[in-house]
Write a structure and sequence with these properties.
Blueprint lengths: L24 H7 L7 E2 L7 H4 L2 H13 L13 H15 L8 E4 L1 H13 L5 E5 L4 H9 L3 E5 L8 H8 L6 E4 L13 H14 L2 E5 L17 H4 L3 E6 L11 E4 L2 H15 L4 H11 L4 H27 L4 E2 L7 E5 L6 H10 L2 E2 L1 E2 L12 E5 L8 H17 L1
Parallel strand pairs: 1-11, 3-4, 3-5, 5-6, 6-7
Antiparallel strand pairs: 2-8, 7-8, 9-10, 10-13, 12-13
Bound molecules: 4'-deoxy-4'-aminopyridoxal-5'-phosphate (PMP).
Pfam family, one: Aminotran_1_2
Protein name: PLP-dependent aminotransferase family protein
InterPro entries: Aminotransferase_I/II_large, Class-I_PLP-dep_aminotransf, PyrdxlP-dep_Trfase, PyrdxlP-dep_Trfase_major, PyrdxlP-dep_Trfase_small
Length: 403
């Protein structure tokens, strides 16, 4: 008898699907931020100052006063009044044709990706992703034993490579994209790329998965105008999240899509966890409906992240003239190519020795990585530390060149 995956003396056998997972890629990335002697450009988290929310404590008391039992199981699809707020936001801000019944509240966009895959993917199905792509989504696609095909999207103005692959018989089930301020590249899809994607999804019958947690964190002077995929085609599922605009610990995001997909999502959702905490949903709704709260918070976050992005970009230009990068127009990440012939994964131990961390770009490619790339998160980098972080990085690179 062939042993099951992972079966060895004294170790439990694991499901075959576990074979595709690398040991906690996300966990090892987050742990790089833990050392006090290291300035971390690794963890892609909101700034601590950004997650502070004294208003949350103030709204929780009255909610608990009104519901002394701490509330019951709620509607599996989410608190109806919160879904109403979300549908209103999707209509007003994204131009989506959304009704509360089309919205499912989930435990963050991450659970949204998982539920979409659970409802729609069979082992061996093809999922197209951008090159590079969000590591947390790659983990889920592997877990569902998808064949992940990375194709440049943001870097291909006409989407020529994707168009050609489809014309030559590529038949994806899903195409996953982070269209605004992507993790890790910071890239934004242009309006014409979005229209092309919508056209290709309709022509070839695949579903677009639009993961949009950074949408409101634009750092440009004006709110960007490119349409959301969900406003362009019914062949799309849209994922949103309050993690980056409120705080990740609320674990509240949402999912919307065509009715047939949403019915399937509802079923797998029931089987998964019966729904979000009603207490936290009421807290989020109370915050969102407080007069001026969201606008004030978003103004504050945009100012904070704009300052951090500018500080890191200017420090890198001063200390690392050989690195190539484009300061992103929003989000948390600056994607850099450190220099010709450099391998950012090999360089990481030396960077840590010099007291700075980042995520090697290779983690974000399911195949054929670009070794010189690195994800530098500015979200948790106080502006006054940007110069020191870049100087340490330059010393680590200088050492590597001298070796
Ligand atoms: N998608 C992307 C692109 C992300 O960057 C993240 C967070 N790092 C997530 C999803 C997960 O977010 P949430 O907290 O909403 O689950």
């Amino acid at each position: 008898m062939t042993p099951r995956h992972g079966q060895a003396a004294g170790r439990p056998a694991l499901a075959a699907r576990m074979g595709g997972l690398s040991p906690s890629a996300i966990g090892s990335v987050l742990r790089l931020g833990d050392r006090s002697d290291v300035i971390s450009l690794a963890g892609g988290l909101p700034a601590r100052e950004a997650s502070e929310c004294p208003e949350a404590a103030a709204v929780l008391g009255p909610i608990l006063g009104e519901h002394p039992t701490g509330l019951d199981y709620g509607d599996t699809n989410g608190l109806p009044t919160l879904r109403e707020w979300i549908a209103g936001y999707l209509r007003a801000d994204l131009g989506a044709d959304s009704e509360p019944d089309d919205v499912v509240v989930v435990h963050g966009a991450q659970q949204g990706i998982d539920l979409v895959c659970k409802a729609l993917l069979d082992p061996g199905d093809v999922v197209v992703v951008d090159r590079p792509s969000y590591i947390g989504a790659l983990q889920v696609f592997r877990l569902f034993q998808a064949e992940v095909r990375a194709v440049p999207l943001a870097d291909d103005p006409e989407l020529g490579e994707l168009t050609e692959a489809l014309a030559h018989g590529l038949r994806p089930r899903l195409l996953y994209t982070v269209p605004n301020y992507s993790n890790p590249s910071g890239a934004v899809l242009t309006a014409s790329q979005r229209r092309r994607l919508a056209g290709l999804a309709e022509r070839y019958g695949f579903l677009l998965v639009e993961d949009d947690p950074y949408r409101e964190l634009w750092l440009t002077d004006e709110r960007p105008s490119a349409p959301a995929l969900t406003a362009l085609t019914d062949r799309s599922v849209h994922l949103g999240s309050f993690s980056k605009i409120l705080f990740p610990g609320c674990r509240i995001g949402y999912l919307t899509g065509p009715p047939a997909v949403m019915s399937a999502i509802t079923l797998v959702r029931q089987a998964a966890d019966l729904g979000n905490s009603e207490l936290l949903q009421r807290m989020v709704l109370a915050l969102l409906t407080q007069d001026g709260f969201l606008d004030r918070r978003l103004d504050r976050l945009r100012a904070l992240y704009r300052e951090r992005r500018d500080a890191l970009a200017s420090a890198l230009s001063r200390h690392l003239p050989g690195a190539a990068f484009r300061p992103p127009e929003g989000g948390f990440f600056l994607w850099a190519t450190l220099g010709p012939g450099l391998d950012s994964a090999l360089l990481l131990p030396s960077a840590l020795k010099h007291g700075v961390s980042y995520v090697p770009g290779a983690a974000f490619y399911p195949s054929r990585p670009e070794p010189s790339t690195a994800r530098l998160a500015f979200s948790c980098l106080p502006p006054e530390q940007a110069g020191e972080a870049a100087a340490r990085l330059a010393r680590a690179l200088g050492g590597a060149r001298a070796d």
